[in-house]
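User: Hello, can you help with two protein structures?

Assistant: Certainly.
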Amino acid sequence: MSVEKVDVLVIGAGPAGTVAASIVNKAGFKVKIIEKQKFPRFVIGESLLPRCMEALAEAGFVDALKEKGFQEKSGAKFVKNGKICDYYFADQFTAGWNWTWQVPRAEFDKTLADTVEKMGVPICYETTVTAIIFNGSDSVTTIEDLNGNKTEIEARFIIDGSGYGRVIPRLFNLDKPSNLAPRKALFVHAVDLNRLMGEEPNRITIIVHKPGVWVWVIPFSNGVTSVGFVGNPDFFSEYEGDNEKVLRELIAAQAHLADRLKDVDFVFDPRVLESWSTTTDQFYGDGFVLTGNVTEFLDPIFSSGVTLATVSSQKAANLVIRKLKGEEVDWEEEYTKYLLQGINTFRSYVMAWYEGTLDTIFFAEKQNHEVKKMICSVLAGYVWDMKNPFVKNHNVALQKLARTIDLELLADEEI
């Protein structure tokens, strides 16, 4: 069996893996990426957040992405029973990027992967990690290609950005259930000839279909729009027929979409994703660190996936560089606690969304502009800004605000 030596082995060629690989490579270390699938490949997570732009910029990817002409995204629009609540990233509390992209992820991820290869980082596609043996911080990873050829890779450190593959958690039994309820998504890419009916395409639209059920509408620059219904699995069991029949019936029943997407062509057969929320017992160990969805994937609402993937990889890569240079790294304080701050902030907003708390806030008749700016920063992905009260006090701030709105509404009714 052949043996190869690298400084850092990165598992996964998605955004988490390529951001980490690029940053470590730029620091002068030898990096190699192992990817189980062949690119381009389909994946959801198509609406980015401004905070991830900082990670993409540090990795050196922004220019290559601009050349692709992806749809720029300047905000998010929430719709319920004809009411509209708009958030514009230029009007946020936290200083930072005020725009990002909406992307077909197959093309987006392939662009990142191709760019990091041009930087000198090799990627082995269609290659599986079959075993990892740790010896202190050093490791030996066995990989196998499609032809059954096996190679051992000796690495000083491993960054696992394998996403849903969750390589290290599965090999070492680190997975555990999330505290979020199981949900299901039925989605498709549609040829969107009537796009301007929705005053788009410069932002994602999220529609409250009914309590606990919502719709994403994500226009791309190529004339195609991603549309998905998300809810409790029991909601979808009320409908009969194949996925296309059910999805067209759901679209026809949604006033905000019915005329716009009537009889449109679907780019592929509608797909289903469900029971996606999961987490892990630990985010790092002696010789490895987990990034992106390998740590935890929450929910597609608020588009947190790519942001958590890129920011965690940005953070992990810089800590790995310090580690390889012989510096002491407090992984618990500098990585786990940092990452959990962002994850738990997003989790509070996800739970508030499904509980209806954010309905009260988003669609209130009276909007406090300063408060809206703070919430906008969270929706832009700036979930590490502890100067923002709606980040620092994420677990109680939304509930307090919703109660205040309800009390003000009650007082107005009594008058």
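That covers the first. Now for the second protein you mentioned:
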Amino acid sequence: MAHKDYVARGRNPKTPPEPEKRSLPWVRIVVTLALLFGFGYFLWSINDKAEDPVHKKASTKSEQVDPLPDAPEEEWEFIKTLPEYSVEVDVEEREASEKRYLMQCGSFRKQGQAEELKARIAFQGLEAQVRASDGSSGRWYRVIIGPYESKRLAEKQRHTLQRAKINGCQIWLWNL
């Protein structure tokens, strides 16, 4: 169409013409119905094949199917023997070691800082001591816990302190 035709019909020459609206053709309706009918036939045809052949035989020949046997009663042997069972273990007694362990958790110039750490340790259920020691660089206040008879016990209490964010505790061997 030419420019004059657009103007003659009352349209703006810059806009394209509107496409014609089509109604739904009868071919699409027929194809859709055929597909739905085919799907329904497919579902109906597999319905017969879906039955389990074992159950089909059982329903027709109920005389030949053996019923399941009764479950046997379980008898646990350990229930009777456990109360009578005892074990004896020979344990060698370890001699008391002369080794002792101390744990030092801090060393401070001011006694107030040492007392503050001692109080934090006391909140964890452990008893600490503040000991003053004089050295070449002056007086120091050490916070110590112990003595312990085994290093294992000292390690256990050091882990308790670490969970409370009291870090830096060192375990020292202390000979009597």
